[in-house]
Amino acid sequence: MFGQCADMDPILAAAKKRNIPVIEDAAQALGAKDKGRMAGTMGTLGCFSFFPTKNLGALGEGGLVTTKDQDLAEKVRKLRVHGAKVKYFHEMIGGNFRLHELQAAFLRVKLRHLDQALKSRRQNAARLMQELQEEWKAVFPAEKCLCEGESNAVGKKVDGTVLLPFSCQETSAEHTWNQFVIRVVGGKKRDGLRDFLSKKGIQTEIYYPKSMHEQKCLAIVPGEFPTAEKLTSEVLALPLAGNFAFSLTL
Ligand SMILES: Cc1ncc(COP(=O)(O)O)c(C=O)c1O
């Protein structure tokens, strides 16, 4: 999420043990790496998005699926064109998921500039990270992962504390900063900061206002997910682009 890989090794190990294929949602993570492995190459399938807000954004909708499995590749190709390998001979139910040639041509040109764009994003993210510490007294979350009991540590933090984006990864992991997401401890404080920035003409976004189990279509999933709910009330994405990052000196 947000441009970095998940901590893939435990996921891959658990899936292998149970013989479950792993589908990597690398929509936001094109170019990200985990221990030298590219996002979208570690599971059975990798899915990328070329939606305009992505680091490699098309002029409209677009996406890509990667796999090393020849049979799956063939299946995905069929799904892409109404389930047909040979035109008008439909072997399965598919859809129209073709990438338009003009989008592909546009993306091919942009692809040449991707490395440079990611480099600039990383530089901007580093600058923003530093400014947040200096101007807003932002701190890193106590633990690497919420799953390691960070909620207790954060519970001791004062409402309004700004937490810097954290990584579940070793420092060698390469983030692509598709989103630069801070957390503001105490949900109402996040909303207050968002209003303040909006009045200054600075657009922010909340990724995401509802967690999966709160979505109407998935509300059937049983269980309690207090960490996910807490995050939805605290996260705030600040503007960051390859050639631009807003300054906190407002
Ligand atoms: C993490 C994640 N997964 C999946 C998607 C869906 O991508 P698309 O809209 O190209 O199908 C997005 C796009 O916003 C995303 O950010």
Describe this structure in words.
Helix content is 33%, strand content 14%. Strand 2 and strand 3 form a beta hairpin. The protein is globular, with a radius of gyration of 20 Å. The strands form five sheets. A three-stranded mixed sheet has the order 1-4-5, with helices on one face. A three-stranded antiparallel sheet has the order 8-9-10. It has a two-stranded antiparallel ribbon with strand order 2-3. It folds into two domains: 105 residues, Type I PLP-dependent aspartate aminotransferase-like (Major domain) (Aspartate Aminotransferase, domain 2), CATH 3.40.640.10; 129 residues, Aspartate Aminotransferase, domain 1. The chain contains seven helices and twelve strands. The longest helix has 22 residues. The chain is of the alpha+beta class. About 2% of the residues have low confidence. The structure holds pyridoxal-5'-phosphate (PLP). Pyridoxal-5'-phosphate binds next to loops.
